[in-house]
Amino acid sequence: MKIILFFALLFWSAASLGQKTILVQDKLNKQPIPAVYLLCNGQQVAVSNLHGEIELPSDISCQTVVLSHISYKNIEIFIDGVTDRQTIFLTPSESQLDEVLVTATPFHRIRSAIPGSISVLEGDLLQTGQQTDIRPHLEQIPGIQMQAGALNTARLTIRGIGSRTPYASNRIKAYYEDIPLTSGDGATIVEDLEINEMGKVEVIKGPSSALYGPGLGGTIVIRSAPIPLGWNVTALTETGSFNLLRGGISLSHRDSASYLSSAFYRTTMDGYRQNSRYERSNFIVRGGVSLNRSQASQHKLTFFLNHVDLMAQIPSSIDRETYLSNPRSAAANWLAIRGYQSYNKWQAGVSLQSQLTPLISNRIAIYGIYNDAYEPRPFNTLDELTKTIGVRQQLLYSGNSISLSLGGELFTENYQWKIFETIGEERGEQEFHSRERRNYYNLFAHAEKEFETGTIVTAGVNLHQLFYRTNVLFPQNEPVETHRYSPVISPRVAVNQRLWTGNYLFASVGHGFSAPSPEEALLPDGSINRDLQPEEGINYEGGIRSSLLSNRLNLDITAYRINIQNLLMTRRDAEDVFYGENAGKTTHYGIESSAFVHITNPLLFPEHSLRVTHTLMRNKFGRFEQDDLDFRNKKLPGLPGSSLNISMTNTLLKNLSLNTSFQHISRQYLNDANTISYSGHELIDLSLNYRYTNGWIKDLRVSTGVQNLLDRHHASMVLVNAPSFGTTPPRYFYPGLPRRFFVNLRVNI
Predict the structure, then answer these.
(1) Which of 198, 512, 630, 666 is deepest in the core (most CB within 10 A)?
(2) Of residues 376 and 450, which shows the higher confidence score?
């Protein structure tokens, strides 16, 4: 009996040596694919099981075989080149590509399979209708509010984070490709970017410290528009109300190994209010080349250059009576000096992406930023110069079921500012001159594990430390003030569970923080507030994503809660005196929901789509006392309790579509005591869009429309806790634009 068993095992082992197993997975979500046919000379010889496994017959006669599935593109493989347990990825066919691929995470997945809350705006949405302002597009994302006092004055918040910064976007990080749009003091500017060059905007909501470092509210990642093959010339022009004029031209070339693109855009507008002239020029160059294509190790070198030249007058905020009776007027003090903001900003980056082995890749990026800014203000004139350099490196391992990422980022920024007297419309004597150096490092690790049950588990951690030093040079040279914050460790754990095809559950818990900016830490007497602590929070979230009715209905619902301690807020003791202070605890919780419906061949129109996003949130003080006043359980001002955005597209004819959008912003308080409020507003926009392609015209788009169709009087931005100096009333309101019209033309040849 033992002899028979020995020969049986020997026979089985010999047979096994001639037989291999391959694993077949979806290229986008890395899930196993059952029912994949292995074809030899067009005949089925094997099929994958529920785990995506295919046993290659040992006696197969073909040198090449084909993997075939009705929902995927066929792929041909060489038998001799296949190793045992090798994973082969299949690309979904065009009919299956309704899902959006997310690239903001280390390992690219379809959005539904991401363990966490993330939203994506595709290029077609960004390039529909009026394109001067990115704000209407970002506000279509649930959880985001972007108030704008003017085209150059915006406050972006995610889940209520960042509402305490009066005139800028803070507590949120942003990247354009690998270049950070967030300065060393935590301020983020996205409103000066050229929309026509954007291909995708991905928003990670909630703390993403484990991936990108500090940024309690979340991270915005902007990708460039893809460059088509061959030579391409694109020109656009736009005109509209209040003497809006916009023009641009781009030239690009792409082949199988390289690409190069350059573009120039110019935007001018007189504005609705007094002292609101806006002028902006954008110049963008980007390119890439593939190296060592014949070797096993593959490399891709890319570069990006962006130049922004901005001059924007500042009408500032106005009091309630003026807002109601004469919204076109500017604040008297800003109008008297013709106050404005101007800067010349250069942003550049070079990255090298290397596929070292089939499973290991590396990406390193070096970037630099130069910003020369000037701002005459009623109380003084600010002259700034910022120089930034940084490097970000990431090593990735992608196995069959587990993926690992290790990396780090070094950032250094030299900032100097001078303050001069403002005498009428002229600059007076110098009053102050100081220099700062801001440095930080991020070290991060991220791991993902996939299970055969359709479960994806991720875990990550980030170590961040901030250093800076300040040197006052005038009115007298003072000793250098240095400060080093304690290292902050931010972990994150998340899970995504596939229920059935197109339906997923996800949940995550993560720590986030925002370090005080040097300006917040600088006290009015010029010393550093060493007691100021980083703002920290824990984010809990869970949600469901569903694709129903053959991908015609997509739903996304997320519930979240963020507990924040050491809230950083700006205190203003005088018109020109700002500094930060910690203000206890706050709680942010809410529900974000979105639905997208796509219908073809309805009765009225050939094609119809409806996109609805809604945010319901409550943001309140848990513990906050100031000047002997207790604001416990009061709602955070400057944040609406709910917001609703509806966008509907109807295809009227083959190339003609009508887009209708509706926005509702609910009531919001204007001060911490919740005694003054803004009632909110509703806005309706319409645009008619024509698209044509034929022969040498690769793409022709014409859009015309009206914004604020019903001419609603509204505030596009409010100033929280607006101060009142002397007998002047507090200036809470930035009036929004009334009804206005536009028409634009874009052609690609």
Answers:
(1) 512
(2) 376
Cα 89 from Cα 400, distance rounded (Å): 10
Best CA proximity match to 511, nearest among 540, 541, 542, 538? 538
3-state SS class at 34:
coil
Q: Which residues contact 13 (CB under 8 A, 6 or more apart)?
A: none
Rounded distance between C-alpha atoms, residue 423 and residue 99, angstroms: 58
Backbone dihedral angles phi then psi of residue 341, each to the nearest 5 degrees? -125, 135
SS3 (DSSP) at 10: helix
Question: Does the pLDDT of residue 98 top 70, yes or no?
Answer: no
The answer to whether residue 184 scores a pLDDT higher than 90 is: no
d(CA 354, CA 544): 35
Residue 3 phi, psi dihedral angles, 5° rounding: -65, -40
| Spatial CA neighbour of 166 closest among 521, 535, 572, 567 | 572
- Given this model, what pLDDT does residue 324 score? 96
- What pLDDT is recorded for position 551? 77
Three-state DSSP at 520 gives: helix
DSSP 323: H
Determine contact, residues 530/245, Cβ cutoff 8 Å. no
Interacting residues of 284 by C-beta distance below 8 A, sequence separation 6+: 194, 197, 250, 261, 262, 263, 264, 304, 305, 306, 307
Hey, what are 489's tokens?
Answer: 């460790």
Q: Which residues contact 132 (CB under 8 A, 6 or more apart)?
A: 151, 195, 238, 240, 244, 246, 267, 269, 742
CA distance between the termini of the chain: 80
Residue 660 clears pLDDT 90, i.e. is over it? yes
Q: Using an 8 Å Cβ cutoff, are 134 and 116 in contact? A: no
H or E stretch including 493?
strand 488-500
Coil, helix or strand at residue 68: strand
Q: What's the pLDDT at 131?
A: 73
Of 538, 500, 607, nearest in space to 31 by CA:
500
Per-residue pLDDT tens digits for 483-510: 888 899 999 999 999 998 889 999 999 9
Residue range 694-706, pLDDT digits in tens: 777 888 999 999 9
CA trace torsion 462, 442, 581, 625 (10° rounding): 0
* Half-sphere exposure (Cβ direction) of 605: Cα atoms closer than 13 Å: 17
Residue 80 φ then ψ, to 5°: -65, -25
Across residues 723-732, what is the average pLDDT? 85
Residue with the larger pLDDT of the pair 132 and 252: 252
What's the pLDDT tens digit per position in 625-658?
A: 777 788 889 999 999 999 999 999 888 887 898 9
Distance CA 528, CA 580 (A): 11
| Alpha helices (H) along 154-310 | 209-212
pLDDT of residue 574: 59
Q: Which two tokens stand for residue 85?
A: 């347990």
3-state secondary structure (DSSP) of residue 722:
coil
Could you give the 3-state DSSP secondary structure of residue 709?
Answer: coil
